[in-house]
From TrEMBL:
Residue stretches spanning the membrane: 6-26
Keyword Lyase included in the entry's annotation: no
Name this protein carries in UniProt: N-acetylglucosaminylphosphatidylinositol deacetylase
Pfam families: PIG-L (PF02585)
Originating organism: Cymbomonas tetramitiformis
Source species, domain of life: Eukaryota
Stretches of the chain forming a coiled coil according to its record: none
Amino acid sequence: MVQIPLWATIWTFSAAVVPLAALLCLPLRRYLCRYVTDNDHVASWRRVALITAHPDDESMFFAPTIVSLIAAGLPVHILCLSTGDADGLGKVRSKEFELACRALKVKEEHIAVIDDQRLPDGLSTIWPLTVVQEHVRTFIQAHQIDTVITFDKSGVSGHNNHIAAHRAVERLIQQNETLEQPGSTVEGGNRTPLRAWQLITVPFVRKYLGTLDIIWSIMQMNIFGGICFISPNADMSLNAMRLHASQWVWYRRLFVRFARYSYVNTLHEIVC
């Protein structure tokens, strides 16, 4: 008897079910998007910074968050910590990043790509925490950011560069008193401290359920807390990712079509 690998079973199931699920969820998507964006946590946000590791992270993993926040009228800034120069395509990928951000409706003056030789793109590369932290700190202070979003400690895909972004933001939260924003005040004159949220890594089986994971994610949010962002347009991630032409290979095409991160993001606060 032929043993069918688990991954093949999941891909086959996703290919058959995800398009149907997308059609079934379409009438509910706008309602659900409004429902999660009205979350009490989001209501207190003023300026949001997304911290990514490579050009294309914003399109592959964070599109539902970006689109939902911009639709809610919140300024979204994106700091990409490297040019993604592993294959010598740093300049090309930086330009692709700009095009993708434009497609996601992020203003050009709100994005930045770091070209630092100490932060080379690489699966096995461990970035110096102090270097990453300083770049993030500088960006946050320059744009008077009060809310940061990045990867969690597993980095969604386990990529060391993703994990470095998380660790740097986590360290800044631990040093909270040095990052209060002088331009942000609350009643009584106290400065508002920086807060940070992490994109949750889900188990492999859920990762490729596409829109089927929306209901499960909302159920978990209602039980365990956190925030869910649901993209009002299922093609936003796909359209943005297409603009990363140098990275538009077959497995990324499959990822953005079937991965739940194209449709829903679950965020939990980083608490130290």
